[in-house]
Amino acid sequence: MAISRLGRQVKRSYQSYGFCVKLSAVVVLGLCFIFVWSIFSSFSVNSRRESFDDILAESVSDLPVHPSKKEPRDKDQEREDEHRFNSRLGDKDDNALNVSAPLKPGKGQENDGDSKLSKRGGGEKNKENDGDSKLSKKGGGEKDRENGGSEEREDNDKEGEEADEENNDGKSDESLEEDSDSINTEDSNNGVDEQEEEDNGGGLRKANKKKLGPVFDPKRHYIWKSCNTRSKHNYIPCIDIEIATNKLRSYRHRERSCPKSDFTCLVPLPRDGYGGLVAWPESKTKIMYRNVAHPKLAAYVKTQDWLVESGEYLVFPQNQSLFKGGIQHYLESIEEMAPDIEWGKNIRIVLDIGCKDSSFSAYLLEKDVLTLTLGLKDDLVDLAQLALERGYPTLVTPFANRRLPFPSGVFDAIHCGECSISWHSNGGKLILEMNRILRPGGYFIMSTKHNSIEGEEALSTLTSSICWNILADKTDDVSDIGVKIYQKPESNGIYNLRRKKFPPLCKENENSDATWYVSMKTCLHPIPEAIEQHGTEWPAEWPKRLHTFPDWTNNREKLIADSEHWKAIVNNSYLEGIGIDWSTIRNVMDMKAVNGGFAAALSEQKVWVMNVVPVHAPDTLPIIFERGLIGVYHDWCESIGSYPRSYDLLHADHLFSRLKNRCKQAIVIVVEMDRILRPNGWAIIRDKVEILNPLEEILRSLQWEIRMTFAQNREGILCAQKTVWRP
After folding, report:
1. How far apart (Å, rounded) are the C-alpha atoms in residues 412 and 351?
2. Measuring CA to CA, which residue among 124, 723, 642 is closest to residue 372?
3. How does strand 587-590 pair with strand 608-614?
4. Is residue 172 very low, low, confident or very high in pLDDT (cuts 50, 70, 90)?
5. How many percent of the chain have pLDDT more than 90?
6. Is 67 helix (H, G, I), strand (E, B) or coil?
7. Is residue 90 over pLDDT 80?
8. Rounded CA gap, 282 and 292, in Å?
9. Cα–Cα distance for residue pair 635/640, rounded to 1 Å
């Protein structure tokens, strides 16, 4: 009873004073928490601040930086960095001419005169490597052309990339030493990787940063081995099948398919060695046979009269062609059927589907028409290699389910001679791909022999469904070849008049310029009509077209300055100052083209330039085509669609700094350069000194001859020549 009475009293008192007790307890606990936090918070903040200072002592602020602005730095910090950089250089003087020395950055603006030109004849190897890293900024305004790309590089595609538009002042150079002013045209990409992730809830951004290593490991030594593949000296990775099996007897992949492991072996020379280069224009009529020899070609030569084996040469008689009656008669008949076609005037850029005897490209070249030949995967005779050896633009690629690596609406005309392609098969995807890359108002020319009635009807139905106007359908009396000429419509109005809306128009968000590992679509891309879209107007006639920039290019003044900049470099440095015999140069590749300024500067030389726009860079390839030049999209982490020993000169302007940490191994780019460059061919590489120093050692390990180096203000240029050495 006593216990129960006590319980009732406690319960009544708790109900009367419970709220006050709870409130008092909360207040006491809160005060205790504030007291404890005030004691330890100062120590924690100080500890963080000390840790942050240690980070800032090594690099600039890790906070996200706008790509067009530089983060301000403390003056004491700048003096400390300058002292640390100068102490690394030491008190060494520049070496004299004709002495092999590593690339060294200049010691500041006040010591620009200390930088010297070093022409190389061999000597001591470079043992200094600048390991300074700079901030990698995230560029904007890039078009995504890798919708279906390789998954293993998706994360790297998000890494910060500077806009590749060159900030050049267009000033003329008086000598190669003045060319150093133009070397400093790129900001660094070698430092802290910044990846911004957006919070879906609050829209806040956070920077997830990691320290990036050097492009090339300066301590690594390379041991080179020859490739042991089925295609031997003609091996094209990503296109050729490396090893034959009982189940798979084809020589080439149906679609582009790269080896699982990185391509780091060296493609061997032909069995009888490399016989040297027949210089242009003599190469139009003959080439060294052993440079391209293999059994299938030998069997093919015996059945043809347009190429003849003559001693150590393959000779191409001028009056002979695959086209009966001659190529001149064939092209003149096309002009008669379609009088609006004026070769070399309104028709400048032509795509030739399926490599034949190159007579089509050769004849049009005399009329200032630049023809890019597309060597297809079933070209087992390697006629595309003959075209490259003769000096004609050629690209090897499968043509089945994926888009060709060109932007939309850029070819003035497309030609398929003695065409055996089933255009109407697979839902008409192939003809729709031709429609995508053909300029509005452009021409599709096709010649066939003895086409089936079913094929004729299917092609007629398909071309009518996409509103192509047939200008001519005639069989030539001399050649007995049926020629059809179609013209793509110039506006969208005709699409709305179709009774059957098939194929349908593509959705508005469908990017017609997305090509890298992107499947062909069974839809029609609307014809551009807005003034800011490329393809709304037909370009000016050649050669005015080269220096005419339409309104959709947006920054005409910058393009003009870029052209003047490269013109000055080419005329005052490349053509005179680095020892290249340009009479031996015909096939040129610009491995990181921007607006085609380098190719335009070489337009008066007897060369052609393949302008490669990396898939991760800003999409400037439509501008290059608009100027009457040719180019292609490509990812340099993979091999390009070209035969070994295809090019006489490779030009790489800040290619490696832009590809930093994008590829698993940057060395694959150097191996690819070695594959596509001919023996005694040249490479001109412009980049940061910390990249060029180890790169020079890699080229030496490949037995390349370093002909010239020049450096100033941490930027440099390296000129090297490949030899015939193979492991």
Report:
1. 8
2. 642
3. parallel
4. very low
5. 50
6. coil
7. no
8. 17
9. 8
